[in-house]
Amino acid sequence: MLSARAYSFRMQSRLAISLSWVGGYVNVVGWMTFATGVSHVSGNITHFGQGVLEVITHRKFSGAIFFGLLLLCFFLGAASSGLMTELARRSQDPEAGTVRLGLFPTLAPYLLPHVLPAVRARFPKLELLLVEEKTDVVLARLRDGRLDAGILALPLHDEQLHVEPLFEEPFVLAVPRTHRLAARADGLALRDLDREHLLLLEEGHCLRDQALDVCRLAGADERDGFRATSLETLRQMVAAGVGSTLLPVLAVQPPVPPSADVRLLSFRGKPPSREIAMVWRRSSAMSGFLSQLAAQFRALDPSLLEAPGGSPGRTKGKPKR
Known about the structure:
This protein is of the alpha+beta class. The chain has two domains: 4-92, no CATH class; 99-321, D-Maltodextrin-Binding Protein, domain 2 (3-Layer(aba) Sandwich), CATH 3.40.190.290. It has helices at residues 4-10, 47-56, 63-76, 83-92, 108-122, 135-143, 206-218, 231-239, 287-298, and strands at residues 21-22, 25-26, 33-34, 37-38, 97-103, 126-132, 149-153, 161-176, 197-198, 221-222, 245-248, 262-265, 273-281, 314-315. The strands form four sheets. Strands 5, 6, 7, 8, 11, 12, 13 and 14 form an eight-stranded mixed beta sheet that branches. A two-stranded antiparallel sheet has the order 1-2. Strands 3-4 form a two-stranded antiparallel sheet. The protein is elongated and about 75 Å long. Residues 4-48 and 78-83 have low confidence and may be disordered.
């Protein structure tokens, strides 16, 4: 029979326990790394448990401490059917499990159709849970452990987050077909937006802030008396002849159908754009796998980032650490 000291030389393991009491129910989530590979377990982890998991998984335990924690996990885990079996299975296959990924509303429906098939092909055993929320909500859930990663627009001012740049997405100007700029065929300069009154989203959308930055550079401003709740509402208002707006280029690519009542105008030279990145907690025990997942999003077809008749966006080759 192996002693605890001998066992520590045979197996380097990391373990964390998350406890939450809801109506007397005890939820135990473990995460272990064996010499044969790395596993991760995500799921319904409480704020407290997530922090414990990420601190412990960066420390090494002696065999005796590990053995004691293992026994504790075993007894507490009796309430959770099949937990130890699931841990053992995932320790042999790091790409099997659940990842909770948050995206913001003006990106998710336009990006996901182009990348999810490749993600499913690359990680066939992965359960990818997608959460669409505004940026502030995604960040809050990232910080408290309810999300494992997020795909957001930069900049983000949070030193606790690792940032993995994915691509740069240009904007196009959407105008009604009767607009004074609708006949332009040679592309726009920012100064062409001088004194334009653009339709914008309501507060809380990062696209609103991005569009306001472009307005300040171009001498444009926001149209008074109207703020849309979604990108599709903006598109319909432009088609109805109410005004013009800025749209991210993925939002005008198939499978989004074109509108005969909307003219899309690209910008000459370097167009206004937004930088998209995948982010996660620097302390995350899933960092290695999340880097692989980010690479699948970064492999987005570059032609999808080309504005109609204009300059292409850019995919990002080197991550920021």
